Amino acid sequence: MGSATIDIQTPDGVADAYLSTPGDADRHPGVLFLMDAYGLRPQIEQMVDRIAARGYAVLAPNVFYRAGRAPVLPIPDFSKEEARGEFFKQVRPLMGQLTPERLAGDGAAYFDELAKHASEPFAITGYCMGVRLGVRIAAAHPERVAALGGFHGGGLVTDDADSPHRSAGSLRAELYFGHADKDRSNSPEQIAALDEALDAAGVAHRTELYEGAPHGYTMADTPAHDEAAAERHFDALFDLLERTLAR
User: Which active-site residues does the annotation give?
Assistant: First the structure.
């Protein structure tokens, strides 16, 4: 396999990103990997490498690039609740910068870079806040996205006029959601509302609840990690990619 940290020119600056490919001369299907709020870090790189090893070119941008290169913020000491709280005080403004308009421009830049290494259309896999970002980008560029996998996402259904679920009519990708069972940011009512919006828009999708799994279950460098749920997520993701991306 081949991997590298690369720079991507976006409308608002330069985003650093981690790129991993199978390492041969063939052109492979492409996957855009959208990180969780803890940022671009070794855990993300390990997950990207695992997907690439299955025959995909995978790009994981530092979506917080407007605030600096990764690591933008150090991962908090999870044994100290005050450290975790302070982390989220700092990260929420960065998340708030990622408006639908900015994500449309970022997404185009990420896809243009991925197109240098992979064939279109692409897939997106997103984690935590990355699921919201993935829905935004897929809605902004429906012709470039064949599939979207979202895992332990939150805030997908809100009362806001631009709530992610309200963009269902712009989606053309096939969607898979692996919802965390224990997730205050994604209630059963919100999950049902998301499914209803996708059904009404005629979007092909599958929703599964990972029973007993907490928010963040895929991330092995956090206390939320659930090994069984994380492995289940990889199985579901690879099934989605195999069915939707042309080789």
Answer: 128, 183, 215
